[in-house]
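pls design
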């Protein structure tokens, strides 16, 4: 078994144990669901952080990206994880604001990237992909080149496809809800 296979197994185990919440919730899209995946509850623990970092750094390398980032709340732990692992040497992280600041440099994108930077867009949990698509639009406004996309958990609700369409390139998913909650009622 390769180190990336072990990292994926670890990530799935961490997400199952710490991030999957069964019960009625309202998603950011406004839709309701019988479960919720709060990926940060797994990603901000050492084992989940390292596993995600290893997988994201490998994807960034495969895609020729020099930077990793995306929507602010999702991207920060993912970008930090990717640049913190040995395979992340040479990468930098960034995030895309929800709102532009009215002072300072007034950028949408924060971090050591500029026009022409080759970026991997990352998201922790994808349902509709709306926030990521908005972040992609803002990245393009700032002249960033998007080499691909990656989501940690795909809820299989069309979001990964929406992101792929916005990028014009494939989106890699590290796990899906089928990996985390195969016995869910609506499957």
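designed seq:
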């Amino acid at each position: 078994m390769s180190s990336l296979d072990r990292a994926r197994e670890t990530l799935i185990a961490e997400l199952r144990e710490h991030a999957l919440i069964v019960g009625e919730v309202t998603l950011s899209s406004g839709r309701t669901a019988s479960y919720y995946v709060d990926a940060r509850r797994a990603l901000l623990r050492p084992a989940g952080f390292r596993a995600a970092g290893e997988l994201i750094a490998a994807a960034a390398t495969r895609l020729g990206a020099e930077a990793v980032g995306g929507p602010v709340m999702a991207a920060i732990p993912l970008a930090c994880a990717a640049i913190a692992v040995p395979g992340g040497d040479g990468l930098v992280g960034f995030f895309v604001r929800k709102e532009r600041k009215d002072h300072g440099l007034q950028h949408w994108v924060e971090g050591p990237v500029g026009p022409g930077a080759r970026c991997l867009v990352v998201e922790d949990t994808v349902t509709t992909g709306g926030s990521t698509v908005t972040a992609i639009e803002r990245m393009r406004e700032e002249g960033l080149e998007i080499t691909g996309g990656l989501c940690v958990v795909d809820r299989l609700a069309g979001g990964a496809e929406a992101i792929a369409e916005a990028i014009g390139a494939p989106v890699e998913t590290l796990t899906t809800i089928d990996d985390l909650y195969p016995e869910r009622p609506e499957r």
